[in-house]
Structures are given as C-alpha cells and as structure tokens.
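ingest -> fold -> write
write: protein_1
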Amino acid sequence: MRVKRDLARIHGIPTQDPPTSRRALLTIELPGLSYLVAGNQFSPDPLLFLPSFSKSLPPKDNTIYNPEETVMMWAQSSNGGRTICHRCLKYIKSTHRYISHQETWTSAKIRKTFVDYFKENHDHQIIPSSSIIPVKDGGTYFTNAGMNQFKPIFLETVDPNSKMGNYKRATNHQKCIRVGGKHNDLETVGKDLYHHTFFEMLGSWSFGDYFKVEACAMALELLTEVYGLPVNRLYFTYFSGDTRLGLQPDLETKNIWQSLGIPQKRILPFYMEDNFWDMGKTGPCGPCTEIHYDHTGDGTGVHLVNRGSPQVVEIWNLVFMQYNRCEDSSLTQLQRQHVDTGMGLERMAAVLQNTESNYNTDLFSPIFEAISKETKIRPYQGLVGEQDQGGIDTAYRVVADHIRMSSISIADSLLPNRSGLGLTLRIVMSQCFQQAHQVLRMPQGSVSGLVDVVVDSLGEAYPELQKNHSKIKNITKDTEKWFTSLVSSSETAFSSFVKKTASKRDHTHMSVEDMMDLHKGKYGTKVPLTIMQEMAVRQGYSFEDAAFKEARIQEQPLEQTAEQTDKLKLNRSMIESLQQRGIPCTDDSFKYSYTSCGGTYEFLENFKGSILGLMDSTGFVDEIGADVQCGIIVDRSMFYSEAGGQAADIGYIKTEHGSFRVEDVQTFDGYVLHIGHVESGELRIGETALQTIDKEHRMGCMRNHTATHLLLEGLRKVIDVNAEQAGSRIYADHFSFDFTTPVKMEADQVSQIEDFVQESICRKEPVARKMYPRDIAMEMENIIPLRDEVYPSEVFVLSIGNAESAGDKLGSTELCGGTHVTNTGDIGEFYITSAVRSKQATKRIYAVTGQHTQQVYETGKGAQDLLQKIKSGVSGKGVQDLLQKIKSGVDAKDKIVDLNESVQELKNMLDLVMPKVVRDQVLSELPLLTLSLARMESEILLANAQQVITEEIEAQQNKSFVLCRSDVRKEKQGIKLLLRLQKDIDKPLCLVSDLQSSILVAVAGPKNCSMEMEDAINQLIKTYGCGTLFAQSKGDTQLYSTDLKKRQMTIEAHADKVCEVTRTVLDAVYAAVQQEIN
C-alpha cells in the first residue's frame, strides 16, 4: 500500500483503494513504463527486484555486481523519454536505455574511494601513512594499526601547538605489519586465505569531535551507498556488557543501528574479547561495533559471526574511546571522546571483487603471475590444507605476502640484520626465499624480480616504494645470495649431524635437543629451524610438532625491552597529579645558556630555581633525607636531559639544607626530573635550588655531538649520498653513530671519512643553532628527519658552515636540539676507533674527540712501533744477522723469545681503544708477520740445533753416544737433521727437543746399535707413561724416536729434565752392554 502510494505521489497519479492481494498491491498503473535486467523484460514490480536476484548474473574477474545497483533499472517512458531510477523512484536526467550497472573495484580504487569519501563528504583531513617502524618510545614491534601514529592524541601527550594537536577529523590508509607481539600472523600466513604479515588499514578518526551516531551513519553510507554492499549481507555487532567490571551493554550503539534502518536480527551482541577495545593495560579504551560481511549470500551466516570462518568476515571495526582504564583496572569516563575505525583493505577487496579469498584479489594475482613465469610449477589455484598437494599454493601465498612485507620495510629504511626488527625482517625474507627455492623451484636470484610487481601495485599509494625501488631490489638480491650460502652451509652441518648421531640413537627421529644442537652450531654452521625442518623432512627424519614448537620458543631472542633498573620515572598518573596541582612544566631553555671565546666556554654558575616536586621510590614526598635516591623537579633548569642520543648532564643541586648529586636527567611530558642521591642534609619542597653542571662532562658531550654531524656529512660524501642516521649514543668520552646504507663500507673509506672530519675541524667552521616552525624546517634543503623521532611544533636547525655568506653551501644542516660547540675547531682531535661493516645491517661507527684522543693516539703509536719492530725482526736482513750470530757461536733464542713476546703484546693491545686505521693496519699485517716469524723461528732453531749438535759431537768424542739438548720447531725437522749429521760418526746420536706441546726424543746410529737404541727409547716411554715407538731406516743408519705429549706424561717434566733422564737411561744401557762384553 505504502509503495503504491509513494510511487503514485512521485508521478502524480491518483491512488486507488488498498488492493486485496499482493499482486494487486504491486501493480501500479504508470503509463508506458518497462523495466529491463540483463536483457530480460520483467514486471515493474519493485519488490521482485531483490538483491538476491544478482546471483543469476555471471561473475567476472575483479568485478562485483552491486546487488542493489544491479536491480537499479532505468525505466524509460514511451511518451517523452523521461527516466526513473528504480532504487530511489525519482526521475533522473539520463534518457538512454541502460541494461544493468556494474562496478569494477580495483584495490587502488577502493583505497582512494575510502579516503576521498571522508575528505569530501565529511571534512576529514587525509594524513599520510606513518612508517612501519615505530616512532621513538613507540614500542619494539612494527606499526600494526592505523591508530598508532595518533596515540599522543589519545594519551593527551600531544603538543597542542603541533600540527597533530589541531587534528579534529582524520582519514588515511596505513601500512601495517603484524609480526611479533600480541598480533603475530607470521606462522599462519600461507595456511589460510586471509592472514598476512603486511596489510593495509583504511581508517577514519574523530578526535573529540563527532561520536557514535555520526560514525555509524558514515560507515553505513560508505558501505551501502558508495561501495554498494547490500544490507542483507551485513551483520553489526555491539558490546554486550561485563558485569564484573560494572559495564552495561552498549545499547546506544544498538539503537543507532536500528535507527539507521538495520533489522534487529542483524545486530548481534558479543562479549569483551570481541567488542571492547583496550590500548594497553592502562589508558583510553571503550566498546566497539564491528561490521561483518556474509559471503554465503543466503542468510545462513549469522551463526558464523566472530567464529573465524572465511565465509563471514569482519570488514570494519568502529572503536568508541569513552573510558580511561586506571592502574587499578577501574574505568572512568574520558572528558574527550574519540572514534577510531579501521577497515582491512585486503578483506574489502575480496568482498568487492567477489571472492572469499584475499589472495584472489588484484593485490596478489600479479605477483602470482610473475612467479608462474619464473618457474615450471603450475599456476596458483587457491588450494589449502590437504588439497594443496606439495604445498604449492601455500608457497605462492608465503612468497607473495613476504615480498610485499619486505619491500615495504626496506622502503621505510629497515634493513635485514641480526637484532631487533632487522632480525625479524631477515627471518621473513629467509622464509620467502626458502619457499621460493625449495617448493616453487624459482631460479636463484629471481625473487628480487618480484619487487618490480610490488612497486607497480603499491607505489602510487606509497611513493617511498618508487623512490627506493633500486635499493629494495638490490638488498633483496644481496639477502637472497646470503640465504643461498646459508642453506649450503646448513646442509653440510645437517650431514655432519646425520653421520655423528646415526649410531647413537634412532636416526629417524629428532628431539628438541637435536634441533637446538643444530641451531646453536654444534655441527658447524648455526642452522635456522625453518631450514632444518625442511632438511629433516627431505631426509626422512620425523619430529613431533610439540618438539618443533618448543625449539621455536627457545630460538626466539629475548624481547628487546628497556633495561630493567631501579631508575626513577614519572608515570602517567604522576604527571596528571602534577598537572592537577597546577605545577608548571620545567623551563629548561637555560641549558643553552653558555658562551664561548677563543675556545673557552663559560656556563651558568649557581643557577637559581625553586624545588616544585620531590619523589622517591614510593612516590611524591615533601622532603628527603641523605643517602636516598630521589628525583627533583624545579621550575627552571640548566641541566640537559637525555635526548637525541646525547647523555644527560651531571652535576649538583644545592639548597640551604642539603646537597644533591645529579646523576641523570630525564624529561616526562615537559617535566624535567633530576635523578640522583642526597649526599648531605635534606631537601624540601619550595626551597631555592642552586644548580651547577659538570663542565668537563658537558663539554665532552658537546664536542662529540657536533662531531656526529660532521661524521654524517662525511659518510654522505664518501660512501653514499643517501646514507641516513639511525641513531647515536653520545657520551663525554666517546660516541657511537648508527647509519643505514646498502653500500658496503670499505676500510680505506673509513680513513677518508676520518680525514674529512679532521679537515672540517681544521677549517674552524662556525656552528649555529636557530629555531624554526617545524613545517618550515622540514622543507629546508638537506633536512632529513630521523625516522623514529617525534618532533615538536618548533624545532632547532643546526647548521655548520658560513651561513651568512651568500652562495656558500652549508657543510651540514640538520634538525637537532642538542648542545654543541660554537666552532668546529673547538672539537679538537678526532679519531674513528671502530666501525662495524656489513652489507645489509645498520652500520655503526665509534669515535673519540678532544682530550680523550690523547690516550687513543698513544695506544695507536705504541702499536705501530711494535709492528715496525716485528717487521724489522722478521725481514730478510734480520734473519741473516741472526744466522751469522749463530755461526759465531751466539745463542739466538733470546731474540726469538723477544719477538714472540712483542707479537703477544701487540695482540693484547687490540683489546685497547686505538685509531681504527691503526687497528686495521695491525689486523692486516700481523697474521703475515706471525707466519713469517714462525718460519724464521723454525729456520733459526734448526740452524742453532745444527750448531749445538756439531759442537756436542766434538765435545763428546770419548763417549759411547752423543746426547744433545736443542730445540727445533717440528719433529720432522729434528729427525731429518739427526739423520744427516749422524752419518759422519760411528756411534748413536741422540737429540732431546722441546716442541712446545710435546718433547721429542730421537736417537740415530749404526744398525749394529739398533738393540741398544730401541731399548733406551722403550724405557723412556715406560718411564713417562706415554709415547709410541717410531722406527726408520736410511741406508746403514737406524733411527728410533718417540713424541712424549706433555699432557699425557705421568711424571711432570720439562725438556731439560727429560734430557737428564735420557742420559741416565743411555748410560745404563751401554753399561750393561759393556758388562756383557767383559
């Protein structure tokens, strides 16, 4: 009846009495109207064209037939060409005949439509995606949600003068990675059709502006009016309440959905775990409403909501932040309520592209096609579980997902390495290569070609991919080479494991201990568990899943958490307490109050401030006594708090009643906390505090901080113009500087960088610091912000060089709020002491400046002097001089001992800090010199032994044998020498020689003396309980020898003692022989 009357009212046709049948109700007399769908003529009954009718239309790739728009036929009148939209029942301007409306929704169009909708229709500001690397203090995991970059707003820590502080409504598409932490999808990727490591979150936010009603209305309008999803495919959930926490059901949201026309049967209540969102253990939280899409299409999916079924999936979550969770878990109402919504692009693409699988969308299909071209494996078929024979489709999904994740990560300046997020990236890339090579049989080096496809797919949305295209490709190629080498060495280690354990246990089963032994490198190379698993299966080994999971748990490195100390800090409730008490933030601008003249710096003395807050381990207090660790908050401070990598100032704060030693300074939301110990007396709230910093400590930090800026400029000039700072730790006596570049850092380049910095110091360039609005500073030439730093609305720009002269290009221009020298000449000497080189990992340079370079220089000079001494000693002339001395009867062993001691001293010096160029020289030349020394020692000892034996033969002419004590380097040398010299005498010649780890006793003589010589050697073997008899004949000469291992000797003895025992044994043997003759 209502439909008839509405139609009649729109077209100006008189209505009749209510019909008595449904058919009569729907038969409206509109002259000349006809309705067409897919070429078939139907009755103009609007209720016949239901959304379910679209099922009869054949689907096309990447095309969705909007069920409501599909039946949105154009009605053409026969008397004038006026048309009517069957959906809204209004005349429109188009007059052509239109069969049906189809919309092709590419992922790019879905993404753009989302942000455009909120921008153009609802005044949202489009905010660029933040990096997947969390900002400073943002946690140790990847960015895993769109709201991460807005946490300062939710936590009310945002600078009100910053750009973010003025956000009211925002929208964006955010890069997200869920690997590690609470949300870790790495182990699930590939096994199903909807999990990913990298995904995109389409989001909209209201920061204290609109709330539930508007958020729900916008979401429904976008889904149904813009994307064209039918309501009968959607389910809407709301929070059902929690009696334990005293939370009532969110009936407000339920009623809003009903008021928007959603049938009650499609609005479902769920518990805390599904429909209540927390930022963490404390902080903003609130109920959420989720929108789920039913792929079944027949209305039977209601029981699958929130059941993890691919047939009914969550596509959008609307979070209403209306509470604050306190430390005692209680909830209080927020003064400013926020809306945080997130829609997964991959899932929405699956819905709009008419598939239940995220991997059947245009986000992945081009990658699958590229893989298929590189391998002879069949094309991707979308199979899972047992149907996926050989795991081929699983491998397709893993490779496609992981190459997207790694490309995005590298574009955001993350490099694969051995720690933190870099280690996670390397693990993901390794799994990608493993699946590509072992399962998909992709040629070595071909995975990097997939980067091109990823850039084509995502480059427009994320320009950093296009900017870093070649960098991503090169790093992927280098990492693939590294992985190939790792697999090869792992196979060798696994083969060793097989050989060594086959006889000890059931060689077809691997225990957790076996896995960890392989993983820790017991059999050679450390074998990653994922590679080990594949090798085990290939070679017929079995292992329990529980055992593998246990090994994976043991494999995982400890989470990188902040060092656990008893350091005092201000938590959120303490900061709120200070604010509520009206205590202002600390004015610490006086840390920049220093002057310089001719290299001499003057700092404030006994700078006055008032103590506004005192705290100990229990919290805020009014007074503190001696020998207690505590924290002080003053209204004005001249202390530099730790920031930008620069260490905090140290010094003293003194009051009328006490003295406080400042050991650390930290800033918490504008409050500067001076941490240390009360050395004497006591401190009280309200007292005047006289502040003095440690000048030497500050000057050391200033010199080193300015040097880091020169160092970065040198890196960009010598190694890579695109080198980026990745962090620094600046102390008074040294500093470390981290930077990222895919370019390998060579040893000679380190020397060039050092020269560049030293030249800048010698030029005595001015150093200037000036404050600018952040937006202006970010547009300056050469300004590259740190990727993990959060900058305030106004920032300092530090420039090094002549900024006043027109046309002069500054040597360095960077954002920096640290303290610096005012002239590079004040830095003093500069030495790079160490540099970690790696193709992929973040590189790190250690350096020293100023007065701390003196000890470094002296150590380096000492090392060079020792190196020169050794070189002279082992040179050809040095050897000849020693040989000549030996011929003259001079013992050369002392010289050999002295050179060996010099080598050991030089090795020990490598543990000290010295210039890296000197260290590199020592490390480069010392191995060859050591080898030369060993050869020289062998030659000298042999010559000395020959001289000793010759002299002993002459001295022992009247003896039955000749016994000599002289050292040689090797056993073979002694035996060879003995055989050569014995042939000139007619009696046994015996040599006792110290071979360092053993003692050689050898005797050679005429064969008619064989019995006596053999008997003597056997007695020595028996005496010392070790050694084996060795016999050798050469012409008329017979030789017997033994090698007495020092560790195996039952009687501890040195070579001289063994020589005495040998003489005694030989005397006894020949005495017995003489007795028999007599």
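write: protein_2
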Amino acid sequence: MKETVLIPDLKERASATDPGGSFIVQAPAGSGKTTLLIQRYLVLLATVDKPEEILAITFTRKAAGEMRARIVEAMEMAGSGAAPADPGEARTIELAQKALERDRARGWRLLENTARLKVLTIDSFCASITRQMPLLSGLGRQLSVSESPDELYEEAARRTLSLIDRDGRKADALRLVLRHMDNSVGALSKKLVDMLRGRDQWLRHVEGGIGDAELRTRLEQGIKNLVEERLRLVSSVFPEDLAAMAVESGRYAGDNLRAASSPSVIAGLAGIKEMPRPVADDLESWQGLANLLLTGKGEWRKAGGVNKNIGFPPGRSGNEAELNKQAFQGLLEEFEGLDSVAEALHGVGKLPAPAYSDGEWLVLSALTRLLPVAVARLEEVFAERETVDFSMVSMAAIEALGPDDAPTDLMLAFDNRFRHILVDEYQDTSWTQATLLRALTRGWEQDCGRTLFIVGDPMQSIYRFRDADVGIFLEVKQSGMAGIGLTPLQLKANFRSRPAIVDWVNRVFDEAFPTDEDPVTGAVGYSESRGVRLDAAGAGVELFIYSGRDDNREAQDVLRVLRSLPEGESKVVLVRSRAHLIGIVEALKAAGIDYRGEQLEPLGERVVIKELTALLRALLHPCDRVAWLALLRARFCGLSLVDIHGLTGSDHNRPLWGLLNDDGRIGELSGEGQSRIVTFREKMAKAMALRGRVPVRALLEGLWIALGGPACFSGDDDMQDAETFFDLVSESGIYDSSSLKWLEKRVDKLFAMSSGKGANPVVLMTIHKAKGLEFDNVILPGVGKKSGSSERRIMQWLERGRDLLLAPIEEVTEKGRGGLIYNCITGINRRKEEYEDLRLFYVAATRARERLYLFGDLNKDAAAVKGSFLSLIDPGIYEDNIIELSEPDYSAADQGNGAGAPALYLKRLPAGWEGPCPRNAILTGAKTEKSHENSQGPAFDWAGEEARHLGTVIHRYLCRIAREGLDRWGSERLGREARHMATMLREMGFGSEEARSLAGKGIGTIGKALASERGRWVLGGHAEGSAEMAVSAVIDGSIRRTVIDRSFVDKDNVRWIVDYKTGSHEGGSLENFLADEKERYAPQLDGYEQALRKAGEGREIRKALYYPAIDGWVEWQG
C-alpha cells in the first residue's frame, strides 16, 4: 500500500483480528481483504496449540498459494527485523512476530515445515476428505479429477438414451421425455449434459424414494408460497387511499367484460367488493387488477388507452359510462410516478397458479425418474474411466462426513481438530460447498472457543455459471452459520484505485444496484468505498460513447489510448464476451502492438492447427479430398489457385494423391507449381510408405518438420500450439480416420497460446478471468453491446429457503411458450442473471489503479441497448459527450485500408526452400555421446521382432503404473487397456490379429506383476521413486546416457536399480537361468551404478533384474 489518508474502517479491521470472535466481512474491491485474512491467521497462530487447528479455505489454487506465501513472508520479515513499508505492513509484521514467538515456544518450526499451514482450496480439501474415508465417501479408491468432464457427461447421456428399446418405468420415462422433445435425440442429449453439469443443485431433490403424490404436493406448496409472498409484497405497496377507487373501477370493468363474454382476465373482477387478499385463491383478482391498470410492458395505462377492450365502453357526456371512464382516467393519473407499485403489479401478472397441469406433471414426473438414471450412468463412467468431476468430489466429501444426526468418525475427528476456520471469497460459494462448511461447523456454539471468519464481497459474485449463489452469502450474513452468530463487518477503504475512479464507481453503481437485498433473486445492495491514496489526484475515468455502432472506429480509438499510456504501466483490455475482441485483435496485429491473450482464440482456429489437422486427415485417408486441397494451399506447399485448378479442375473423381503422381498433368502447371509439387510429393511419399509402421504422432511430426512447417511460423506460441496438438494425437491413440472424433472434440475445447513477445504486452482477457487482478490501466470496449442469452433447460429449478420449484420445458413444437410455472422460474433466474451482469460490470470497473476507459455505442434511437453495460449508467453521465460518427476524428493512416481491416497476403515458403543444416555439436572435450545400453549391453539378442516390440510396450506400461500409483491400476482398468495396447502395436507395424494376440500376452504379463508381492513392491510408492530415470555422466572421457527402468530408495535408505526383463523361461532350472541372466546383464547395470555415483549418489546401491512374466528376481550388490 502507498501513503494513505485516514483509513475510514480502522475500527472494523481491528475487530476482525479479535481471536475470540466470529465475523462475516464484506470487503469491496481494493479493500485489502487478503491482508486482513493474513493478519487474522497470524493472530490465531499465536493462540493455538497446533497450527493444524486453523483451516483456511480459498476457491483457487492461486489464492491459496498467495495466502500461504504471504503468511510465510510476514514471518520471515518478522524474524529478520525488516523495516515495514507502511502502517498496514507494520501491523502484519507485529502479528507475525507474536506468531513466531508461539512457534519457538511450541517447537513447530513453521518456516521449515510450511505444509503445517493448512491453507487449502475447497476442492483440495474435499479431495483430502475422500482420501481419508474412501468407502464412506462412495468413491472407493482415489480417482483423478477431470478439468474438462464434458466428455464424461456426453458418454453418460449416450448410455441413458440407450435405454430407449428396453422395458420398465425408466425406459417409459425416457420415451415420454423424448416425445416431449419432438423425438430429437441430439437435443435431449444436450439437455441431459447440461443437467449433469449442475446435478449437485437438483439431485438431492429428486432422489430418495419420494412418491409422485407426495412430491407433487410438496412442489405445489412451494409454488403457492412463492405466489403468496409476491402478493404480500404488492399488497404492502399498493396505496391505501387509492384502493377503494381501484376496486370500484375494477368491478365496473369486470361486469362489462363478463356481460360481453370476454376472455380477458379483467372479467374476473366482476362483482368485486374489496381489495383482493394476499392469498393464492385471490391470484386471478390481482392479475385482473394488474391488467386493468398496466400496459403489457408494465407501464401505467394512459388515458387514451381506456376503452371497451378493458371494460370501459364509449359513453355520452354526463352518462354513467362516461363518468366511470373519467373516474378511472383520474385514478390512472394518481398512479403516475409510483414505479415501485407498477413493478410489483406487473410481476403479479406473470405468477402461475399453484398447481401443475396434468400434462406438465406427466413430463415432470418422467424427468424426476429419468435424471437420476443419467446420474447413475455418469457414476458408471466415472468408475470405468477412474476419473470424476469436482462436483462428485464435493458431494462425496459431504457423504464421508455423514448426516447431522449420525456424524462419521472422520467428522468427529475434524470437530476435535479444527478450532478456527477462515473462508475467502464466500460470495462465490455453491450449495454443495456451503453444505460442507455447515457440516464442519455442526455442533459449534457461540463462545465455545471455536471461531468462523468469512470474507467476501457480494458485489463481486460473478460465477453463477459455476453454480455460485450470492444468496448464500446474504443468508449467512442475516442468520449466521448453524449455531454461530456472525458479527457483520463492512470495509470501506479502497487502497487500489485513484480517488477519482472510486468516486465515479460510487456514483454509477450506487444508482444501479438494487436498494433491497434478496437472497432468492440475488439482489445485492451497493456499499460505498472511499479512495485513500494520496498520490493519485486528478481524473481517472474517460468515456468514449458513440452515436451509433462502428466497431472499426472503436478499435482505432482503443489503439490511440494504448499508444498514449505511460511506458512501463500495465494495461488490459477487458471484455464481457470474446466476440467483442475480434476487431481489436485485428487492429493490434495490423498496428504491430504486442499483446498477450488469456484463453481468447480457440485452438482449432489457429492456422498451424488447421494445417496440422489437414495433414493428419490426409495421412489417414488418401481419399479425403478437402484435406488434400487444404495441404496444397498450406504455407509449406503454397500452390497458387491457378495451379490447383489446373491440377484438379477437370477431374473430380480421382483421389488427389493419384493426381499428384500424374506427371503428365503436373507438366501442364507453372514452373513454380511443378517445383512445389515435386518437393511436396517426395516428402509425402516417404510418409505414406511409413503409415502403420511407426506411431502416428511421430509420423505426423516428422512429416511436418520435413515439409518446413516450423519455418512457416515465427512465434513461440505457434510452436507451443503445434506441440499441444502432437500431444493430443499421442493421447488419442489414433490409428485411422474413424478415430479422429475424440481428437476434434478435444481441440474444440482448448485455446491457443498468445503469450506476447515483450516484457509489458497489452493483456486481453474476459472480465471473469480478471477477477482478483488489478492493472494500472483498464480499457473496457463493447460496453454498448449485450451478451448472448442462456439456453433453456429441460427442467427449471429454483430453491427458496426450504421450498423447491421445478417445472419441465415446453414441447419443442411450442418453443418459447412454456408453462406459467416454467416461465415464472425462468423469469426469476433471468433476474439473477441481470443482477450478475451488473456485478460483472462493477468487477471490470474496479480492476483499474490509475485510469479507466470505457467504449460503447448507442442504438438508432440514441439510447443504450437493453442488457448492455451502458444501459446501467445514468445517461446524464455521458449524454453531453457523445461522439458523432460523422466527425473526422482519426487519420487515414490510423485506418489501414479502406475497410479498416489489415490487407491479407498469402504466406508461404519460397519455392525450392530447404531446411537448415543441423548445428554443430558443442565441444565439451568429451568424446561423442554413447548410449550406455548399446555400449555395455549383451553382445547378442535372444528376442525376435515380436518379443522386442511387445517388450517395449510392456516397459511403457510398467513405467506408467509406477508413476500413476498401484491404486489406480485394478484388474478392471487393466482389461480396458487391451484395446489401447493393440493400437500401440499396430502403430509398430503389426496387423490387427497379431496386435490383438500380442496385446493379450502383454496384459497377462502386466497382470502377473500386479498380482505378485514382489511386483507390487517394485512398482509401489517409495522415496525418490522414478520410472525411466534418465542419467547422463562423463565416464572415461565419453558422455554416457543411461535410462534406468526403475529406481527408488527403500526404508533402509538403500538405492535400488531395477531393470525390467520381459522374456520368459521354459525348461531347465530357473535358478540357473537367473544366474546366467545376472552374468549377462551385470555390466549394463554396473554402468548404471557408475553413472549414479558420478551424479553424486553416495548411498548403498543394490541392483536387480525383474522378470514379470515368471515373477523372476535376481539381485546383487557391488
């Protein structure tokens, strides 16, 4: 922090470090909440008996790492007597000094054992719970967690849909839902995937054996409670002095419409004598009143809109009809300006009757039977793939702790262990995570010696798409956690931004944020901040608001701002959607401005990936005409369009590989075209001859290099993208064109590298990615644009306290006309999204330290587009500074070409290009490198080709098992590997039948190792364990490179060198066989030992040969 004025919240910050109190702290952007958390942690360290009694939970690895590092840094500064930079740091060091005194008194030695500081992400904490109680968690053995589980959801959806031809209630439910979706299997599959992503929100409500009748009663009661809550609201705001006039006008209009047999809901007011009650039975009367007083847009009806359609027929001067009409028009004038009443009444018109129609219930009942089936299939996929998602880990952790009335031993152990819990970023908590925290604090009471410290900022809750619910923060703030009352603390100081930025943010968002907080809709009130920096006077916010849309003009103005910024200051362009960056990225490229992107450009859109994909498809399928045409135009071939047409235009039937080998046809092309094709054809022919004989990755990568692929791209990012693609090819086990689907899906979900070239590039990222970061200069383009709307779910749900609302989507043939219950829940969820958009804008604006720039445009009506960030700003803030697009505001030089986009040129290698010669070896004084295996291995080879290749594959698997751990390699998984092993053998040149036969032998050999006590010892976890351990050393003046199959240090501190031998033994003495093998391979393993000694290994070393096929073992020392 820099020099500051008087801090406005010193009292609250001091209270937060009271070790005996429990608090919930609202910490707006820039308020120094991480510092406060660290100070709290240090205070608690000075009071506990063990550091493990304190648990700090964050939501990202970065946040956890930063918090732990800053705790350690503070203790190191306290220990070294370092001078603090400001009063805040002085306070931190003072608390760290007391923590160090406790550390010395208790002998913790925390600076040497930082792992005792329990600062964990919520996901890692859940994983630790499931590891401790694998059976109770329901996961069994420990499974890996997938960062991109959509493939698992898709497989579960496919398996669910496979029930279509079966019998039983589950299959009946599937068929009914499928008919509801117009028999679109693809559409239903997508909806199921979406539901599986958020299953932790709804699963607990639809499983548990509740009968249909009981479930329907419970759900309809929830709808009734919602309806009556909203009716109580409108009843409370409806002006009492206007009620009698409203009833009289309503009765008159209702009587007229009923007499005319009108279907209008206003007819329901016929005979009304008093204001409707706030109960569900009077809903139709309230809706009639709303339709009478308001237009369809929710605005008060104007006098000119009073006519016979709403129950006021024309009359003559002085007669009853005219008098009633005039009275109603006068009533409408009284309502003018009462916007809160209009808003409440308008909401009543959208409320559903508290009962499902028979059709709705039929579909909803089927969904409540079908969705648990999809979850069961997902759990099958998890078990088979030995991979789960984060939701599964969280739910399993809760399961492992047990219910409130029957806590597990682990829960009781936690209850005794943790005395203090700190939670960061609580505004981004999901229901599952909140349930876990409630479980950890169950049984806690006020003043019991345990404390809970929650920090967050509901104004920065922006992760609803990850199931975060800001309402959880609001509820805990209002009601506390379990039996613990939490004292609310509000921080106000902003140490980050210029006071001018803070004042602008206060002015804009105090008006935009809702006045009343509501946990159901996510409505959060605004809390002002106060800028406390003394070094940053002056304006800090500049707006560029255009009279119409011109993305090119906006991009050029962004460039102008970027060029004007001080050298050395950080700068970021933040957008709501990646699409808002397209024009800016092109402008940056054209202007040669260095930039770094954060997950902006899909990997598959990069030219290098497009060319590699075409190359792979062509290798796998010579008849893939589109792929071959793409190669002819690729940078490494670079054939002109005229030559491509000359080669292919008159023959649409022959494969292009055949055309490329037609010398007569080639001779008709241009001289340069002939040269390019001959070079390309030569490289491709060599690769085509190797198909099926070498691994696909090696073939693809080697061909790309030979064609000059790396020379076509100058940036490190392109090379990294290519390496990512090659790695995916390896993982996919591709062997023909039919197996490309998995690879394409993976590529679609990855993003390209854009790391920037200089030390201070312009950073481009989405606002969500910027959460928790800060920059000197923040540029927000596209504030006049709105983002896309979310898809409609197959089932909408909403939790309101103890109530649950559920409704099925409308039939596909009635798209957009869902039932009232579905639309009501959708409306509430849409309101949640609108409030989150507002908070997203706040997060973006508060990232700036020095300057904030906003760029946006108005629509043709000179108004902000509804749903855009600009629509959230009071027009009075910018209406005097609107930029008219007719103004010549930038030079032709800034515009590039006439269209404002950079000119496109064909990038290709020059004809006759040749790759560079290999560099000379570095002279070290040592002799040429030798492979230790070749120089000291046996002088003869027992094995044939099949045995050698199978041995290679088995070696790979044994090393993989040692790396991943035995607990992940059960018999079920091993059996599933047979297909992959056969693929590996096919890549080595074996036919399908040979590959399958050899794979069976390989799986059997590995299975023996996994079943053997000796094999499990070799492959199990050990200190300093390594598989395929590479060691290089200079021995006798020569560089020797060795690769040791398995090496580790046992419990007796002995270093082991183990070499796998995959051969078998038939006939004769096994003892004699092993003795002969020892004699044969001893020189090779002695060389391994010599290399390790050269590398500094001083412990005792023992060597061994391990034969998994026969469980053979021979060892020696010296």
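write: annotation protein_2
The chain has six domains: 9-135+390-495, 240-337, 530-594+760-883, 602-754, 942-1011, 1021-1117.
Residues 812-817, 888-904, 928-943 have pLDDT under 50 and may be disordered.
pipeline exit 0
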